[in-house]
Design brief:
The structure holds 2 protein chains of 2 kinds.
Chain A (H helix, E strand, L loop, with lengths): L3 E10 L2 E11 L4 E5 L6 H8 L7 E6 L2 E2 L4 H5 L2 E4 L11 H11 L6 H10 L13 H13 L5 E5 L7 H16 L3 E5 L3 H7 L2 E6 L2 E7 H4 L6 H8 L4
Parallel strand pairs in A: 3-8, 3-9, 6-7, 7-8
Antiparallel strand pairs in A: 1-2, 1-4, 4-5, 9-10
Helix pairs in contact in A: 3-5
Chain B lengths: L1 H4 L3 H33 L7 H11 L2 H7 L10 H28 L1 H5 L2 H6 L7 H27 L7 H28 L3 H25 L3 H4 L1 H6 L10 H23 L22 H41 L1 H9 L5 H33 L3 H5 L5 H31 L7 H9 L2 H17 L5 H19 L5 H5 L17 H23 L5
The chains are: A alpha/beta, B mainly alpha.
Chain lengths: ~240, ~525
């Protein structure tokens, strides 16, 4: 059974067609890269996966369940990091992390939480209003990674992180892979994706234009960056 | 299915309690204290039964009824009853404003800022947020209602009964409940927090206007408007609990409708989608003034319509004045005694300070917008583009001054449009009587600018002064023994009340000088202080 299975997903916003028959499969235990330029439909697809947007047609399945109908049950098994993290001015980062964990209905795993706080060098006692963009991103990352989920949906999780922390992030993903977790990773950093991903989907104007295992998609001597750029050449 | 929709309701509710605890406590404490202080003041108002009958007679005039609602139980009037008639509507308005803020903050505002998306990715029911918010506001209203009632029972005031105190408090609380539900529904229909809040306030304005019309003409409009219905409890007289029940039912039904709409829509979207915009900045948007104008454009349009409509509402009341005076011997006699002062003139003189105070609200907002942009971190990119600070400070002031003139004229015009048919008003008189309040309004603009210039964190102080001005206008009429200087601390009390009083230029000139001085001092501060959060 696939962890994520999207078949013929269509989503319109008024007259604008954001997704036009998207197909995507993510197998259990793989890191799946989700690439595409801004506005191609990555975030819309992810929001449909999270049951935040309702599909106009097509099926969106997570762990075999319906992403819209069974949202609450499915969310217990996944963790999400949005691309643009906004938090509550008057709560501290630590409070937000605990809130997110408690909403999952699990006890906060203190050692896991403090482990990730250390690794990402985040001070959880500061109010969110004082955090920079990178620090807000870290709050969301620590909350997601501490959750011990089966699937991690990460929407440009490293935007705003410095190169040192990006390395920490990559190590975390490799560890997750070793533990047999699935990851859907949307990113603009091709070198990062090439290092981490087992398979890839490239979206363009609301359609998947290229999908497959990383070693199949990349011919000899081509880098992911070259492939990506060629896909959009003459656009 | 329903249970799944509100999964994690309890935790979410506690989360709202945590976020909201401080702000809500301030609201609850100030509302209760305000109510308690008034209750404590009232018994001293009436040394004799005649004094009370005199006040009741004043209240039983169309202008006062339009302002605060119908008078009941004249023959058996007690201090508690008079207090309830005069204060219920103001407390209700304050509670309604509290509800609009609270509900909007936890629904559309959260969604717009993208915070809701993260929560929605967790095992939280689709409606948990909306349901917890409405439940919280219900609790909040109940607490306010009970506390108001408790203080009414504790503080000795003649004519107070436990039933009356309860029905009084509950009417206020349930009006808040209806508007919490209205705001929740608006949050589903409009895709921006500003839009849904603006619409909620507009609904409040319409409810007040319907009530004013309905109460003066004594017709069904008073029952259609929740604010009119809330006054029908007739606290300390007939103590009718039926309106409270109806208001509660309205609140519940509206909430359910809002939840139903929410369950069917995408997060981030409204039922009325945001329009597509232009690809290029128009010439009007170039430069700091153009930017400031664009920031304030929406609010300018909404307030223009609102103030014109309010003027028109009061103008419609003028048509009823003559009938009223003819049928009320006591009022006719009072007018004779006052030297044949025209009823319409008295009405206009009383109305203008209120209009001026209402107009001050968007103007203070306009000045404080400069600080809001700073707080949101959006000013950096403007200032980094070679814009001197004085231009920003000046742009928002200029807009506020122009808005002051336009709004004042629109209010007078609205009044004229509906009152013209009675043949009792002249446009020039109306314009003079309202424009004379401009210097007082400028003082408020100057004070707001001063605070933004030096201590934006104390911006609340300007609202305190505005409330003070309102209290002085209101109680200055009832409590004749308030010392003159206490009254004169409010700029609005220094303005000659045309057309009843004589025009005097001196206070107006002094106020203009004060306003300019405040603004200049504020400019000094703004040019030198650190900008940032």
């Amino acid at each position: 059974m696939s962890t994520i299975q999207i078949v013929n997903l269509t989503k319109n916003f008024g007259k604008f067609t954001a997704l036009n028959g998207v197909n995507m499969t993510v197998k259990q235990g793989e890191v799946h890269a989700f690439l595409g330029p801004n506005g191609a439909g990555k975030t819309t697809t992810i929001r449909c996966l999270l049951g935040i947007l309702k599909a106009d047609s097509g099926t969106v399945k997570l762990f075999g369940g319906d992403a819209w109908r069974d949202a609450v049950e499915l969310h217990k098994r996944l963790a999400y990091v949005p691309g643009d993290v906004n938090l509550w001015d008057n709560l501290t980062g630590g409070e937000v992390i605990d809130l997110f964990l408690s909403l999952r209905g699990i006890a906060v795993d203190r050692s896991r939480r403090s482990d990730f706080l250390d690794r990402f060098e985040l001070d959880p006692s500061k109010k969110c209003r004082t955090y920079s963009k990178g620090n807000r991103q870290k709050v969301a990352l620590v909350a997601a990674l501490s959750a011990n989920a089966e699937l991690y949906i990460l929407d440009e999780p490293t935007s705003g992180l410095d190169p040192l922390l990006e390395k920490v992030f990559q190590d975390c993903i490799i560890e997750l892979k070793k533990q047999g977790k699935s990851v859907l990773l949307s990113s603009h950093i091709m070198s990062e994706v090439e290092k981490l991903a087992d398979s890839v989907s490239i979206i363009k104007d609301g359609r998947i234009v290229l999908a497959g295992a990383m070693n199949e998609v990349l011919g000899k001597g081509t880098t992911l960056e070259e492939l990506f750029l060629s896909e959009y050449a003459g656009r | 299915m329903v249970i799944k929709m509100i999964a994690n309701f309890g935790k979410y509710f506690r989360f709202i309690l945590k976020r909201e605890g401080f702000m809500s406590s301030i609201w609850v404490v100030s509302l209760t204290a305000f109510s308690a202080i008034i209750v404590a003041m009232y018994p001293g108002l009436f040394p004799t039964a005649e004094a009370m009958q005199g006040l009741v007679a004043t209240m039983n005039t169309p202008a006062m009824i339009a302002l605060m609602g119908p008078v009941y139980g004249i023959e058996v009037a007690s201090p508690a009853m008079v207090m309830a008639q005069e204060c219920l509507i103001w407390l209700a308005i304050a509670v309604i404003i509290m509800n609009i803020f609270v509900v909007n903050r936890h629904t559309r505002a959260d969604e717009e800022l993208g915070r809701f998306e993260m929560l929605a990715s967790l095992p939280v029911g689709r409606l948990a947020n909306s349901a917890a918010t409405i439940a919280f506001s219900f609790l909040l209203n109940l607490v306010v209602a009970v506390l108001i009632a408790v203080f009414l029972i504790i503080i000795p005031i003649e004519g107070a009964t436990i039933t009356g105190a309860l029905v009084y408090g509950l009417s206020i609380g349930m009006q808040g409940m209806v508007f919490a539900a209205v705001t929740l529904l608006a949050a589903q229909l409009f895709s921006t927090a500003r839009g849904s809040m603006g619409v909620s306030f507009a609904v409040m304005g319409v409810a007040y206007a319907l009530r004013a019309q309905g109460d003066v003409a004594d017709n069904v409009l008073s029952y259609i408007s929740p604010m009119g219905l809330g006054l029908k409890v007739e606290a300390f007289y007939s103590n009718d609990f039926l309106p409270v029940g109806i208001l509660m039912a309205e609140g519940v039904v509206l909430s359910l409708v809002a939840l139903w709409v929410h369950s069917r829509r995408d997060i981030g979207a409204g039922i009325f989608p945001a329009r597509k915009g232009r690809a290029h900045a128009s010439i009007a948007l170039r430069g700091p003034l153009g930017w400031a104008v664009r920031m304030m454009r929406g609010s300018f349009i909404v307030w223009s319509i609102g103030i014109f409509a309010l003027g028109a509402t009061y103008g419609a009341v003028i048509g009823e004045l003559d009938n009223f005076v003819e049928n009320n011997e006591m009022i006719s006699q009072m007018l004779m005694a006052a030297g044949g002062m025209s009823m319409v003139d008295a009405f206009i003189a009383m109305l203008n300070p209120i209009m001026a105070l209402i107009i001050t609200v968007p103007l203070i907002n306009c000045i404080q917008r400069l600080h809001l942009e700073e707080k949101r971190g959006r000013l950096e990119s403007i200032l980094s583009a070679a814009v001197p600070r004085i231009k920003l400070y000046g742009s928002f002031t200029l807009i506020a001054v122009i808005e002051a003139v336009v709004f004042t004229c629109l209010g007078a015009l609205g009044l004229y449009v509906t009152a013209e048919a009675t043949g009792t008003v002249e446009l020039t008189v109306l314009l003079q009587a309202s424009l004379v309040y401009l210097p007082a309004i400028f003082c408020m603009i100057g004070l707001a600018a001063l605070l933004v210039g030096w201590r934006p964190k104390l911006s609340l102080a300007v609202w305190v002064v505005a409330c003070y001005a309102f209290l002085m206008f209101y109680f200055g009429r009832i409590f004749t023994d308030i010392p003159e200087w206490v009254r004169k601390l409010s700029p609005f009390s220094n303005t000659p009340e045309l057309p009843v009083q004589e025009f005097t230029a001196t206070p107006l000139i002094v106020m203009c000088i004060i306003a300019i001085a405040l603004w200049l001092v504020g400019l000094l501060g703004y040019r030198h202080r650190d900008l940032g959060r």
